[in-house]
Specification:
single chain; 345 residues; alpha+beta; Murine Class I Major Histocompatibility Complex, H2-DB, Chain A, domain 1; Immunoglobulin-like; eight-stranded antiparallel β-sheet; five-stranded antiparallel β-sheet; 35% helix; binds 2-acetamido-2-deoxy-beta-D-glucopyranose
């Protein structure tokens, strides 16, 4: 994650591909409040629990998390209570912001916080908020104080947390509870979190609307995977489109890379797709068949869980696109709300 800028860190789930060392683990919480409160927790970037204020229950999203729910009902109860508290905190946050900015309607607040634990026991944490799709405030973990991302945010901090009690609360949480939770999750889910599943790789020709070859890797775990095109053994960077990694229904991932290339080129040169993944002893190489035969490609199956995540991402993308127009923002937020609705089904 150190390869990511602060803003990119917020988008790490969709943008920052880092072949993480097996010894690093992360716990991340994403909250959104736009009237309704939705929370997801991710361990090593995989969704493990979700919470929706409409349902009022935490829903385990992995087998090992289900096991924690079954084995430790008291823990589960206290965590559900924790979510209710979080909802209340966010409600206060939104209420204060509305007063300060003289807004009449609820506006969208996203909160992203979490912690990391390395195999040398070093830890890290962050807590960031956006308001209406713009960076708003973030916690400086060294000083335990809020940093305002703009002038509006400065007056907000003075009003919302004049004594810095919220900041202290979150600094404490990130340095102790968050790390304890992460350790608990890693020990409970180790078998699953540290599993290695080899990608299936296929190469597909497409002629319409423009000639291109698609290299598709699917079914792999963990998420970090490198995929590149080579022409006669040399990396190709032009006319290449690398798609984001998408979750499959079975808790594995898929990723594709597309190369625009005329059919004659494919006859003249050897094009190969090269895949690197922690499950592989050496890189996996697939050559584009000269005859133009295609292999099948599995399409991503968008499950309700995935839909909920896409919704959150949509919200976060809105956050990132803070320079775009207000109208556009509203449209995106609506999109994300629709997705959340989907997640209820
Ligand atoms: C708050 O909004 C109302 C209605 O739009 C307006 O009449 C009022 O002047 C505003 N107050 C401030 C302090 O901006
Ligand atoms: C990390 O902490 C654990 C338990 O707290 C300890 O057993 C282990 O030796 C530590 N590792 C390092 C590299 O300090
Ligand atoms: C946190 O505050 C300290 C002291 O003011 C400063 O040196 C440091 O750069 C800040 N950290 C971040 C991430 O802004």
């Amino acid at each position: 994650m150190e390869n990511c800028s602060a803003v990119l860190k917020l988008l790490l789930i969709i943008t920052c591909v880092h072949l993480s060392s097996s010894g690093r683990h992360s716990l991340q919480y994403l909250y959104t409040a736009a009237g309704r409160f939705i929370a997801v927790s991710l361990v090593d970037e995989e969704q493990v629990v979700s919470y929706d204020s409409k349902i009022g229950k935490m829903i385990p999203r992995t087998e090992w998390m289900k096991k924690i729910e079954d084995d430790d009902p008291l823990y589960w109860k206290s965590e559900t209570q924790h979510m209710t508290d979080q909802h209340e905190r966010i409600r206060v946050f939104v209420h204060r912001a509305k007063q300060i900015f003289n807004h009449t309607k609820d506006h969208i607040v996203l909160k992203m916080y979490g912690c990391e634990l390395d195999d040398d026991n070093t830890t890290g944490g962050y807590d960031q908020y956006s308001y209406d799709g713009e960076d708003f405030i973030n916690l400086n973990l060294t000083t335990g104080t809020w940093t305002a991302d703009n002038d509006k945010a400065k007056s907000f901090i003075n009003d919302w947390d004049p004594k810095g009690t919220e900041a202290k609360h979150w600094k404490d949480f990130l340095e102790t509870n968050c790390i304890d939770q992460l350790k608990k999750f890693v020990s409970q889910g180790r078998e699953s979190l540290e599993r290695k599943v080899v990608p299936e790789v296929s190469v597909l020709h497409k002629h319409y609307p423009s000639p291109e070859v698609v290299c598709h890797a699917t079914g792999f775990f963990p998420k970090a995977l490198n995929i590149t095109w080579q022409k006669d053994g040399e990396d190709v960077h032009e006319d290449v489109e690398l798609r984001e990694t998408l979750p499959n229904q079975d808790e594995s991932f898929q990723k594709r890379i597309i190369l625009k290339v005329p059919a004659e080129e494919l006859q003249k040169h050897t094009y190969t797709c090269v895949v690197q993944h922690s499950s592989l002893e050496k890189e996996l190489v697939r050559e584009v068949p000269k005859g133009g035969r295609s292999a099948g490609v599995r399409i991503a199956i968008i499950t309700p869980v995935v839909a909920a995540l896409i919704g959150l991402f949509a919200g976060i993308v809105v956050w990132k696109n803070k320079n775009s127009g207000e109208r556009r923002k509203e449209a995106d937020v609506k999109f994300s709300e629709n997705r959340f609705t989907l997640s209820n089904s």
